[in-house]
Amino acid sequence: xxxxxxxxxxxxxxxxxxxxxxxxxxxxxxxxxxxxxxxxxxxxxxxxxxxxxxxxxxxxxxxxxxxxxxxxxxxxxxxxxxxxxxxxxxxxxxxxxxxxxxxxxxxxxxxxxxxxxxxxxxxxxxxxxxxxxxxxxxxxxxxxxxxxxxxxxxxxxxxxxxxxxxxxxxxxxxxxxxxxxxxxxxxxxxxxxxxxxxxxxxxxxxxxxxxxxxxxxxxxxxxxxxxxxxxxxxxxxxxxxxxxxxxxxxxxxxxxxxxxxxxxxxxxxxxxxxxxxxxxxxxxxxxxxxxxxxxxxxxxxxxxxxxxxxxxxxxxxxxxxxxxxxxxxxxxxxxxxxxxxxxxxxxxxxxxxxxxxxxxxxxxxxxxxxxxxxxxxxxxxxxxxxxxxxxxxxxxxxxxxxxxxxxxxxxxxxxxxxxxxxxxxxxxxxxxxxxxxxxxxxxxxxxxxxxxxxxxxxxxxxxxxxxxxxxxxxxxxxxxxxxxxxxxxxxxxxxxxxxxxxxxxxxxxxxxxxxxxxxxxxxxxxxxxxxxxxxxxxxxxxxxxxxxxxxxxxxxxxxxxxxxxxxxxxxxxxxxxxxxxxxxxxxxxxxxxxxxxxxxxxxxxxxxxxxxxxxxxxxxxxxxxxxxxxxxxxxxxxxxxxxxxxxxxxxxxxxxxxxxxxxxxxxxxxxxxxxxxxxxxxxxxxxxxxxxxxxxxxxxxxxxxxxxxxxxxxxxxxxxxxxxxxxxxx
Length: 730
Prior knowledge:
Number of strands: 21
Shape: globular
Structural class: alpha+beta
Helix content: 40-55%
Number of helices: 26
Strand content: 5-15%
Radius of gyration: 29 Å
Strand order of the largest sheet: 3-2-1-4-5-7-6-8-9-10
Distance between the termini: 51 Å
């Protein structure tokens, strides 16, 4: 519920967010102004240059107008706070207002948004919404900031908003009054505001408080984030300190990339040399991006080189999975912390058990007194996470990796209340890293396992993307010719940059294949197959001579390929649409698929597997799923039964921190099918029987979900569990 007399985060989002009348009216006003404004064109050009590396090809005029809108709302809310008695006398050109407090405190130093003169009616409408309201002592823009900028881009930029109660818990546990502390990716300023509020509420003298505030720093690569954090801090300070006593040195938030501070050249901001290796503490929530998410090829190379210099670079097959958060955890202390300084970060939990973070788990630059906060059943984000605390020593220390284990762990619930304290250790500690970090009792079990021989027999499917280019619906069949349109379901799920539609295109039917998505799989049954266009010959190869025999098909592929080339990431070395579809030869190798294909989901909370009869259909498995082909129908259903068994899902959860499953089922000793083994035969029969049961469930209820299927056939699943428990999991 919105608190009617307070301008809190919820109030700001409701009054000025996407669904508000003010958003619609002011965006309409800005859109019309942009058409005829020369200033707009110049400002947009500067803005585009500054934000291209953040948003890549997703950058747009619409986003620029949203940034302008957001900046105007921040200004007006700030004006209402610092100058309430004179609101009626304020001129509508907000740039003039910047000459007073805004200029002195450098609050709105973005040079991109001064192109528009505010409409007096809209200005007054906004003022009327907020006048005479109280300002709470907290970050009031975090939800608004997320909603305006990151419904589409949030993952792209790696920003995951940290809940206030978790921020408070971390700050209360970690921050030491008066210490020089840094948030190196401060976003809207949630951690900074919490620290400064902690200072202002203390019983220390005013001079000590002000000195402590001047030791609080935030960095961010996004200029709008920097502005938001500054305004949040400024508004908080005005609740405790008369405006005329506030000094600019109390707001130390700066725009630059904290893992590459050598790029920092702003003359008006502090001397970088003074900041390097000067901090006592570092706290925050760094970007949760991987190497492959980055738009800029040069930046990718720098990240790879930095990870190598920090000695956390993964093996070549995991390079694209380099975690930017892991790089931050090593790079920031190395650049900004004093020896003996502390770091406390929110991190994706994959740093504990991802193969790509093996070297990260050496913790080579940290003291042996490490601490993890885990939230095993109460995640605040879509991605499982931890909080990790360490003391920085530097590269030259005499601590052996094994001395850092076991690691002290605190387990929390969804309100950040402590449940218990325990210890985590590693499955295997090596000289340059460590394998999975988990509770010690789980590691004993995992350590006793042997990989299944099926591990090398299952493959990930082909990268059948962008889906809007190759998925289609059939409108008409005329002998060998198909008339096709875009698949509406696929189009409705597409990212904006890949919103490509086609109508009444003609292709030869020999280029039509069948596939399915993860969401099409139920336990034991695939509920739908989709049409997909693939420019391949009978050997699953792209043959320009072959496709040239079919002019309509060739023309269609060329249109798709041109769109792909124009819209692919600049960092991508994949030159053509076919090369993307056949990445790592995952499409072409499916020419060897046999009569029966066992498939299961590559990601998700629970396993779901099914058997495909491939004898008379050209089925292509996509990268959302893994597959194994066999000529033995019994072997296929045997595997389907085991992969759908509830105990396998439960065991996999011990060794994965995210939704990614990949080949983890085969870390357990699933035996090869033995046609003379009665348990194997029984499992195969049940796999086949349960497929018929689930198919009937689907026919009677086409909207049935995997969860509902499991509930209905729970008794059957328990029978599978009993059969597999002794065979696989003892």
